[in-house]
Design the sequence.
């Protein structure tokens, strides 16, 4: 029962093309459609067979923790040891099967019918503390190291990787004990931005800030774009009371050595009153809408938001706008709508095991009994499956078929060259010979 219950966050097999291996996906959302069907929004994982051979060769050539290309990686694998602590090298078959365990994470999402789920699996991020041989001991365990971009056709390291090991640790230098000389050096690196003993009372400072707000309100009335955004006096006064205006006024007062007259005059130079805006006021409505769409799709990945949606904005400005945006009524309304939408989403779904006969299942025919499995070479199996539509005479036994569907390749290395020709010759001798019945023809075939 528990194995048929699927929840958000589960890694699952999806049936796509019946003749192809399963798709490996992570469930992000479960939604019920108006027709009563259940759809799953999933994150995609790619196999090695799904990306170009050029990229795979590049990864193997760079030896990015690929055990089947670097013998040093294999012999140094702490998990490949016997009971005596001696290093054990992976065999060719193990290297071949380990290729099928590697996946590539993508930022791509898609929506699939939940009825096409064919079971659970597990995908983990590989790090140095794990051994490659440990993945071969679990039936439905996969690992990934790189992120694949289907649009750019590139592979990059996952930013979520936790780097463990001595080569990733920082070398901390020994700090000398603090003395009078070092205190003077530290003091020279500091900038005083406010002095509470500047000679002004709290009432005088508050009166100065009221004047600064009034100047800010008047400056917004003179600025045409801002006046259109704040048509009422109340809205202009509220914007002039934000932290950006107050911080600028206090910084101006500090620079003029707490002289109220000079500080007030500097707020109104010959060009007119100074208008100070923060990120919330400086952004246009179109930029605000783009930001909200980006937050919905990218979350708090501000670098991705800057790259894909707002490249003309600075990273600092985007982060500052985000925390100001969280204090607005618009954020509160969106939060409520999102919570209401989450209540309508399914937390889990029950999908019974798929027991229907697969369309690749071959009928039991006596003429196919001597044809071996393309993977393991066995000639006896309870069920046989057609392996390749391009080669209709090839088939797989039940065990190798399940392996092919789950892991995306043949369980054993295919023989080639002299080994394959020798095996074919041996199979030919096992075939039953028949004598031609045509009069005058005594050929045996």
Sequence:
């Amino acid at each position: 029962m528990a194995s048929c219950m699927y929840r958000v966050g589960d890694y699952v097999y999806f049936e796509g093309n019946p003749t192809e291996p399963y798709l490996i996906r992570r469930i992000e959302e479960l939604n019920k459609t108006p027709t009563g069907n259940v759809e799953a929004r999933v994150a995609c994982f790619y196999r090695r067979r799904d990306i170009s051979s050029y990229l795979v060769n590049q990864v193997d050539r760079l030896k990015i923790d690929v055990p089947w290309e670097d013998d040093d990686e294999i012999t140094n694998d702490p998990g490949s040891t016997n009971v005596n602590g001696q290093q054990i090298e992976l065999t060719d078959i193990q290297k071949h099967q380990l290729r099928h365990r590697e996946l590539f994470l993508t930022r791509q999402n898609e929506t699939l019918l939940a009825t096409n789920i064919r079971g659970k699996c597990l995908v983990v991020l590989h790090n140095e503390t794990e051994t490659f041989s440990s993945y071969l001991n679990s039936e439905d365990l996969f690992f990934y190291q790189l992120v694949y971009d289907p649009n750019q056709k590139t592979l990059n390291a996952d930013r979520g990787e936790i780097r463990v090991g001595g080569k990733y640790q920082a070398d901390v230098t020994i700090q000398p004990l603090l003395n009078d000389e070092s205190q003077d050096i530290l003091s020279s690196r500091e900038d005083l931005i406010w002095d509470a003993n500047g000679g002004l009372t709290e009432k005088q400072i508050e009166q100065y800030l009221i004047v600064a707000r009034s100047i800010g309100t008047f400056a917004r009335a003179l600025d045409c774009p801002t006046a259109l955004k704040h048509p009422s006096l109340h809205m202009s006064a509220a914007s002039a009371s934000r932290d950006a205006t107050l911080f600028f006024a206090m910084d101006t007062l500090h620079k003029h050595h707490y002289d109220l007259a000079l500080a007030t005059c500097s707020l109104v130079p010959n060009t007119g009153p100074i208008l100070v805006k923060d990120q919330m006021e400086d952004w246009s409505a179109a930029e605000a809408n783009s930001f909200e769409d980006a937050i919905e799709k990218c979350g708090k990945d501000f670098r991705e938001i800057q790259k894909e949606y707002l490249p003309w904005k600075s990273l600092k400005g985007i982060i500052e706008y985000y925390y100001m945006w969280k204090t607005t009524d618009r954020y509160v309304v969106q939060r409520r709508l999102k919570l209401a939408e989450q209540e309508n989403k399914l937390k889990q779904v029950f999908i019974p095991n798929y027991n229907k006969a697969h369309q690749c299942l071959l009928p039991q025919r006596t003429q196919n009994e001597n044809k071996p499995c393309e993977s393991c070479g066995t000639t006896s199996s309870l069920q046989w499956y057609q392996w390749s539509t391009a080669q209709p005479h090839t088939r797989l036994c039940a065990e190798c078929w399940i392996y092919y569907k789950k892991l995306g390749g043949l369980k054993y290395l295919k023989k080639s060259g002299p080994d394959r020709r020798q095996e074919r010759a041996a199979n030919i001798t096992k075939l039953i010979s028949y004598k031609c019945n045509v009069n005058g023809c005594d050929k045996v075939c």
